[in-house]
Amino acid sequence: MTLSYRKAEAADAPLIVSSWVESYRTAHAAGMISMADWAQVMTAQVLRVLARSGCEAWVAFHPGENDQRSDLYGWIAVESDVRIPARVREDGKWIERMEPAGCALVHYCYVKQVYRRMGIARGLFRSAGVDLGNRFLYTCKTAIVSELIRSTAPHAKWMPMIARYPKTEPWRTDETLPGKDGPVREPAGRTRNERKEFGIR
Length: 201
What we know:
By secondary structure, the protein is α+β, with helices and mostly antiparallel strands. Helix content is 26%, strand content 29%. Mean pLDDT is 84; it is low at 174-190 and 196-201.
């Protein structure tokens, strides 16, 4: 089966939003939102992420089908111009500021279950310009994503905090870590491995 890929259009939004909300519902990394509140809470959050500047979705479809929207095979949501906190030396002092991540950000990738393990996810990554062999960031973790990362994307980094703040707003700090010039405020949710990866000591 040969599929084609294109940027998502407004008519694709219902499928993208509903499949994102439903497939993420049982992910252990999705937090402690009650199942009774899940759809209402997460639909609003997904719409907010999709509306971020630089965020776009790509969909997989079969060019021979009459209605290329009624049975999309999958989709991916990516974001460009991503900025993350970095601790840098400036005027003899260590400060934290938002710096370009220097790599792609993937919010979510979804393929309908019946079409999985057919290379569609790889095609979606390629269409969105994300190389699985290179470093990229992602914000949503599921069992399927974890399997994909382990097997084909060893340089990917899970950073869910990116989606919780506007691009230009510093992450809220609530931990104090020792620094070379005194205490350094550390954004919540950042692990020591992430600090090392992004040059934050």
